[in-house]
Amino acid sequence: MKNTIAVLAVSSLLAFSACKKGESTILSDKTETSQPEKFIVDSVKVSDSSKITDSLTIRFSSNLLVFPTLKSKQLLDSIYFQNKGIRDFSKKGLQAFLDNEKNKYFQSVKSDSKDWISGISYAQEWYTSSHMNLVSTDNDYMHIGYAWSAYEGGAHDNYGFSERVFDLKSNKKLELKDITSMPKAKLEAILMKNINKAHSGAKDSEGEVKNSDMLLVEIIPATDNFYFDQKNLYFHYSPYEITAFAAGDIVITVSWEELRGTLNAKFKERMKIK
Fold first, then answer.
1. 102 CB-near residues (< 8 Å, 6+ apart)
2. Which contiguous run of DSSP H or E holds residue 235?
3. What's 253's domain CATH number?
4. Over the stretch 150-168, which tens digit does the pLDDT of each residue have?
5. pTM of the full predicted structure?
């Protein structure tokens, strides 16, 4: 009888231990369940100058955003579309790329200046500058603004902008067709109608000059240089793209109401557009 009780006691202990071990494994599995990788943004920058002669100094400045958690080469190629030839998207690789771009710029100006440097009669600073800015990542749509400017003699410097929105769920650049099915001609008519809603600040002797009075084109193109928020779709145009330089860069707004009935259903739901 005592032996029987002992056997039962040992069996119960083993069963209890096995149960606890099972519970421990389940708890361990829950604890070790992988969490979504945190979206990380870093940056690299280069800013340097070089004196070519007593009358000419050149300056190079540029920054690139770094995305350590993005692995899609197709997406990364699209993000760095202005920087051809990048093979290493790590922070170290992008820093090396900028250093090389700076050296190429300095060398090109020094080589080319031999034929015209004697024509510079007063002190000047020429420069080239480019920058990336992370604007938003709302609803897994990443909006990056790109800006560049340069001066290499003449009456004024030149500058321009690019806007790109990337879908972080599908790892691709967003196209207009992903947002609206409105025919291009109809969308361009809305852009023309709305052009004067953006104030350029340009003035003449009679006061403010309308953007429409400085147009260089008959049709305002619906380009891929767009971005959006909860209320509107925006098209960004650089100087000389559709208007005279005096107008500066122009942002034309198209409301979601104006695109009613043509919005992509999945996009509308994801952006929570009513």
1. 46, 48, 60, 62
2. strand 232-237
3. 3.90.640.20
4. 998 877 899 999 999 999 9
5. 0.83
